[in-house]
Amino acid sequence: MNNNGYMQVFDQAYKLYKKYGAVRTKATEFKEFKDRHRDWRKVLPLLLPAIEYQAAWRAQHIGWVAEWQNFKTWLGKQRTWERRYPAQTQGERPEKMADRKKAEARKMYTAWLSDPKISQAEKIAWAKQNDYMWLVDEMSGKSRRKQ
Fold first, then answer.
1. Helical H runs in the chain?
2. pLDDT band at 96 (very low <50, low <70, confident <90, very high)
3. How far apart are CA 19 and CA 11, in angstroms?
4. What is the mean pLDDT of the chain?
5. pLDDT tens-digit readout, 14-39
6. What is the pTM of this model?
7. Do 26 and 61 touch, CB atoms closer than 8 A?
8. Which of 33, 48, 103, 127 could bond to 135 as cystine, CB 3.0-4.6 Å?
């Protein structure tokens, strides 16, 4: 694929994301995307399906959902386009959903969280960054439960 082909693929993702979140100029976004990711040619085709997936998930989600990130952030080093969101059953109570999300997070990150090579501060910073405040509380020895 030549540069025009890559730009066309990026253009489709850019136009779709523009419907949901804030974007800068297409040239600026594309340049930063290429600069940040060595494997940009490989992951470029994943952007459009990821935006479609996230839009569909948001449309079906019950309850509060954060605003769309700026495109710059979404394309950033955290590779947000790779994120998958848990399914939510119709009518699921928010507290049940929160318990299920905690269980899923614990299952996914148990090995990483128990790795002694990673400092407690790094783990807490990661949990804060990913909005796992309950995990921050657990690692800090605090409790948010109402008594």
1. 3-18, 26-36, 40-60, 71-74, 94-113, 120-129, 133-140
2. low
3. 13
4. 79
5. 999 999 989 999 999 999 999 999 99
6. 0.56
7. no
8. 127
* CA pair distance 117, 23, nearest whole angstrom: 38
Distance CA 107, CA 135 (A): 13
In the block, residue with structure tokens 């990026």: 10
Q: Which two tokens stand for residue 64?
A: 């509060």
Residue 80: per-residue pLDDT: 83
Q: Are 47 and 10 in contact (CB under 8 A)?
A: yes
- In this structure, what token pair is assigned to residue 113? 């969280």
Tokens describing residue 134:
């309950």
What are the tokens at 7? Answer: 């730009």
DSSP state, residue 82: G
Q: Which two tokens stand for residue 102?
A: 């905690």
Pick from 34, 81, 79, 24: nearest CA to 57: 81
* Three-class SS state of 38: coil
Q: For the residues 133-139, what does the mean pLDDT come to? A: 76
Per DSSP, the three-state class of 132 is coil
